[in-house]
Amino acid sequence: MNFLEKANNIKDELIDIRRDLHMYPELDFQLYRTRDKIKEFLEKEGIEYYETATTGICGIIRGNGDKTVALRGDMDALPIKETRKTSYTSTTGNTMHACGHDVHTTILMGAAKILNEMKDQLKGNVKLLFEPAEETTGGAQKMIEDGVLKNPEVHGIFGLHVEPEIEVGKIGIKRDVVNAASNPFYIKIIGKGGHGAYPHRSIDPIVIASNVVSSLQNIVSREISAVYPAVISIGKINGGTAQNIIPEFVEIEGMMRTMTLEHRQYVKERLVEITEGICRAMRATCEIHIDESYPCLYNDDKVVDILQKSSENVIGKDNIIELRHPAMGVESFAYFSLEKPAAFYFLGTRNEEKDIVYPLHNSNFDVDEKCISVGVAIQCKSAVDFLNDYSI
């Protein structure tokens, strides 16, 4: 079956859907209009669904077989004011789809339409996971808690993300670790305030904070093997009220990113040890809070093999880029990948002739909408091939 031809046959409908979603973006779990548009579409197509994770949706296409494959599309936008002027520019002020989730949602809707029309030929079931809050706390966690991977039990899952560094018509595939894990952290260093002219009578938390910031970088440069990426970034320091006053405390906020579960745990432990040690040595105390954010995203070799073979069938081997390095950014699809064998890939959207070159999270971001048909076709082909070929 030629899925690219089928996707191109409905491309105008899908472009209209994408542009509508783009004009009316919504944030976090507050995706009420987006949810209702998806529900309306699924009802029109006669696709079974239920609501999950506040404004998420789990659709089910029931075929003939015991296996179940899931396809995921995230739905939320970003708090960015769009500056690119098009007929479909965001109408909602300081909110826009600067990460392409309008495209992801549209692709999942297109795949749903095509797969539902051939459900009698499917050797199993297809679940359609429309995820809210990918950009914030990760709707995937809540969807998993709500049981979207059960009844029927999911045996594998495919996801994608638009990529403006890859030319439209191509995709990028990375094996093993695809995205980093992240841990936001907060440190409060508590000293003793006083007059700036008499620092010996105080315990200066600014000097102590400077030592902490510098020392934390040694974890990455001297304690993690250079062949494994890791990052500790300090994004915010706040302390003091005047030039001649030594403050009582300084607050530090940052983010750590790691590529393995072992390194994630190690960096968290060392951040605490180093910070507490410096504060103790310099007569201060500290408070430390480390949040558990997104885990590493792992691709399963068997599922990636299916994805690669399916993609070659759709767009040809020459249009598949083998990515050598993981991304330090995070992706909530990682929660799904820890639960089930998964394949996540990057869908090219770049077109320099159309000035579609701006990075993700940029106010000028846009996609070449030819990518929609490509994404739909690859998702359909991968789902069908998984149901035909994957052994449970």
UniProtKB/TrEMBL annotation:
GO terms for biological process: diaminopimelate biosynthetic process. It comes from the Bacteria. Mn(2+) binds at residues 99, 101, 135, 161, 361. Residues 186-276 form the Peptidase M20 dimerisation domain. Pfam families: M20_dimer, Peptidase_M20. Signal peptide: none annotated. The Mn(2+) ion enhances activity. GO terms for molecular function: metal ion binding; N-acetyldiaminopimelate deacetylase activity. CDD domains: M20_Acy1 (cd03886). This is Amidohydrolase. It comes from Clostridium grantii DSM 8605.
